[in-house]
Amino acid sequence: MTTSNIKHSAFTAIRLTSSTFLIKEFDDIYSEHPHIYAIIVPVSNLVTNSASKPGTIILIDTGCGGASNDPKTRITNLREFIETVNVPDNDRRPLNGLDMTGRAKMDYIVVLTHCHYDHIRKLHSVFYSDSPIFASSHCPEFLSNIPEHSLCNFLDIHTPKYTPSVVSHGHIISNLITILHTPGHTPDSLTIYDSTSNPPMLYVGDTLYEYEPIMFPSEGSIVDWFRSIEALIEFVETQERSGSEEEEPLKFKDEKHQQRVLLNAGHVTYLQPALTVLRAVMAFMEDVVSGREPVRRRWVKRGEETVEYRQSQSLAKYSLICPERLIFDVAQSRR
């Protein structure tokens, strides 16, 4: 069995909890730097699993495909990274090392937060046909045209071929993670809640993040986004309330992590207090649609008038780029 050095890879990985890793594609040619999350689930926690396997890795998204700006990068395949690269935060071992026959020790389950190219590229070639792939059932027609709605056509890049199993709102995968439909960024956007993690984790994809513009394509809806954020706030409040009633409050070394549920996004943001972030980003978006935040820039993208907003504070966390039409839609919906 051959392992590789992380410095020759398009990816890095850090440990977030005892069972969860953040894999980051840190120098991709699209400048997306997407987050990929790997949740390692031991066989004892699974409803069904091959007796010969020690567990399963749940992967949240699969990134841009590994194309790096650095010509010296040798490992551009996500699966190769997971199975052969020694990760310092994993005792300098691969996240899913190979057995004596050369096969990965654990199986995979892939959950896609949405179908944009920077979350699905190379999906077809990286994971075997027996790895289940889950996506939102909220808008099947949106998923019926992946080349267009992934933005692969717009960028003139190859579209991965895959057939996801679409799941309903509230669906629980392997008795572990809960799928929440959160349309807005795209019609197929979903959020993943892992109640088994310590602390519990909320994975929101591109619904929001900090320090980079929150992006809405022409197929997005800020009307739906507000509904989704309101639902997530209510969901997290319920989870934290029920958790505090059932068990002692979790204690963290860092006081900023005192809240029970932590939020992880598809870019930039991870391990942040979920309620704090959700409430703050909603306040920013309310400032935008109410006119309190001025338009900072406008241009035409994909044939539509596009606008940019950003907080004016010196350390502003939130900004937005979207078709201006989506702002008008919110005003219309509130009349």
From TrEMBL:
<dbReference type="InterPro" id="IPR001279">
    <property type="entry name" value="Metallo-B-lactamas"/>
</dbReference>
<feature type="domain" description="Metallo-beta-lactamase">
    <location>
        <begin position="41"/>
        <end position="267"/>
    </location>
</feature>
<protein>
    <submittedName>
        <fullName>Metallo-hydrolase/oxidoreductase</fullName>
    </submittedName>
</protein>
<dbReference type="InterPro" id="IPR050855">
    <property type="entry name" value="NDM-1-like"/>
</dbReference>
<dbReference type="Pfam" id="PF00753">
    <property type="entry name" value="Lactamase_B"/>
</dbReference>
<dbReference type="InterPro" id="IPR036866">
    <property type="entry name" value="RibonucZ/Hydroxyglut_hydro"/>
</dbReference>
